[in-house]
Structure formats: structure tokens, C-alpha cells
Design a protein that fits this description.
With 204 residues, the chain is α+β, with helices and mostly antiparallel strands. The longest helix is centred in the C-terminal third of the chain and has 19 residues. Helix 5 crosses helix 7. 37% of the residues lie in helices and 25% in strands. The chain has seven helices and 13 strands. The protein is globular and about 55 Å long. It has one domain: Nucleotidyltransferase, domain 5 (2-Layer Sandwich), CATH 3.30.420. Strands 1, 2, 3, 4, 7 and 13 form a six-stranded mixed beta sheet that branches.
């Protein structure tokens, strides 16, 4: 079994793997796994030596929805700035801020999406010209929303995993198998390549 597949088994075996530019994990020293699920997401860092010696991975911890505790799953609620060009916040923070904006009648200028993955899958089943509708009925191109989401994770990883050189990392994106069923894999790859080209121009 390839080492990248071994790492995937620490998450969910049945999920579809979209590989990064490096074909095998053993070409890198650190695997960075971003996994999108139907309603949540998570990412983890797996140094090869740690994984080989004791199977360890190091998962990013997030505030758990509705609780003061934390876990490694992030709720996929996303608040996007009025210009549609960046994520204001995500997860529980996005839900709370959106509620505050609603109370002050300032919410309509933002884009607020709940369950982005589910919205994407529904959109692909219904229409080839993919636009995502937010909670206020406003739309953004699906590619824009998904690319912003991936950028958010890459920026968070770069901020929190500074001890690892970028040239040592092997990025792996895992999405639900349903993306393959609805024919969205090319869309996922296009978004991932756009993120890679922007975040890692030296690798292009």
C-alpha cells in the first residue's frame, strides 16, 4: 500500500482521493491532508518519520459547534466579504457573526453559505452552469466559493505549520466520493490547481 493511501486510512477509507502534484508520499517529508466531508472539514499534518514510527498524525483542533470544547472537525458555514473575494470567517465563528449582522440588519451585504459541500453537490446535479446561492438568495460562482475555501485551509496550514518547509510538504485533498458520481472531479482539480498556482508559484 502506498504511504499516501495509508495516511488516508487514518481518515475515511471510502472517500475519493484527489492527489496533489507529487504522485507518492515518499517523495516528501510531510503529508498535509485536507478532508472535506458533507457538513464538516478537517486537516492534519503527518510527518513521515512520525507516521512510520508510531502512526502519528497532528490534527488541527477547532471550537466545537455549540460547546466550549474543541475537536478536529470544522463546520462548513462560511461568511464571505461583500466583494466576494475573501472569507471573513468560517465555522462557529461565521454562524455567530452572521447572527450579529442579522440583528443589526447588516447581513445582506455579505455572502453566507451553510453546508458548502452539500450545496455544491446539489448544484452539480441540477445545472452545468454552476452558481451557488447563499442564505440571502445572492449567488457567486461555485468555483470562486470553492477556491476561497481551499485558500482558507492553505493559509491556515501555512500559519500553523511553519516548522515545516513548503518544499517538504505533500498536499492531499480528500473529497466525498459523490463528487465523482456527479462528475465534479474536474471542477475540484481546476480549483486545486488555481490555489496551487497562487499559493505556490515556484512549484508551477
Amino acid at each position: 500500500m502506498k504511504k499516501s493511501q495509508q495516511i488516508m486510512s487514518t481518515f475515511d477509507r471510502k472517500e475519493y482521493l484527489v492527489r496533489s502534484s507529487k504522485p507518492h508520499f515518499n517523495e516528501a517529508l510531510v503529508a498535509v491532508v485536507i478532508q472535506l466531508q458533507m457538513e464538516t472539514a478537517r486537516w492534519a499534518v503527518c510527518p513521515y518519520e512520525s507516521f512510520r514510527s508510531n502512526g502519528s498524525i497532528y490534527a488541527r483542533m477547532w471550537e466545537k459547534c455549540g460547546h466550549s470544547t474543541v475537536n478536529n472537525r470544522l463546520l462548513l458555514s462560511v461568511l464571505i466579504t461583500p466583494d466576494g473575494k475573501s472569507i471573513r470567517c468560517i465555522g462557529v465563528e461565521a454562524e455567530h457573526l452572521y447572527e450579529e449582522l442579522e440583528e443589526n440588519d447588516e447581513h445582506s451585504q455579505f455572502y453566507y453559505f451553510r453546508n458548502i459541500v452539500l450545496k455544491l453537490l446539489k448544484a452539480f446535479k441540477e445545472n452545468s452552469d454552476i452558481q451557488l446561492q447563499d442564505e440571502n438568495g445572492k449567488t457567486l460562482p461555485a468555483l470562486t466559493v470553492f477556491t476561497l475555501l481551499l485558500n482558507f485551509f492553505i493559509n491556515d496550514i501555512q500559519e500553523r505549520a511553519k516548522e515545516y518547509r513548503e518544499t517538504d510538504k505533500h498536499y492531499v485533498l480528500v473529497v466525498p466520493e459523490m463528487f465523482q458520481v456527479v462528475g465534479a472531479i474536474d471542477f475540484i482539480r481546476k480549483s486545486a490547481l488555481e490555489v496551487r498556482n497562487n499559493a505556490f508559484p515556484s512549484r508551477v
